[in-house]
Design goal:
Elements: H1 7-13, E1 18-22, H2 28-38, H3 46-54, E2 58-65, E3 68-76, E4 80-88, H4 97-111, E5 116-122, H5 126-134, E6 138-147, E7 152-160
Parallel strand pairs: 4-5
Antiparallel strand pairs: 1-2, 2-3, 3-4, 5-7, 6-7
Amino acid sequence: MPINGDHARLNQMVTPSYEYHRLGVADCETVYACECEVFAEDPWTYSMIEQELSSPHRYYVGAFLGSVLAGWAGISIGIDADVMTIGVREQFRGTGVGHALMSDVLAVALDEGAQRIFLEVRESNVGAIHMYERHGFFPIGRVKNYFRYPREDALTMRKDALSGSKPASNV
């Protein structure tokens, strides 16, 4: 499945020193190290990251400052797409990198025919929830004990392809 994010567009969106590249299996060690840093309480395993980065039904993009991975995001591709992860290292937060990464994965999913895009987020992660709302997501439910360490419910959110606003019903 050919998926190509518009990295030229991305490279102009945020601080010009960031470079955006599609991630692949060769990036596993770098992504794993950053995963353990950003999600220290419950990181994905190396094999999970390797599986995600090698799947033809996934799209992952990284934001680099020189050779340093500042942030990354991934999405499953299909009619119902799912934001798999988005992570920004602490020293790069507040620079717009998270928004740029989210914009890229959403654009790729929509270009590939997604009708709905879903994600789960910790209920306590108010900053992320606000960012997702700015990208057109709205809450549709909760998943009890979705996150393990620490144990926490997830807020499930959805974005519809045809409109960024909340539909008349939450179905």
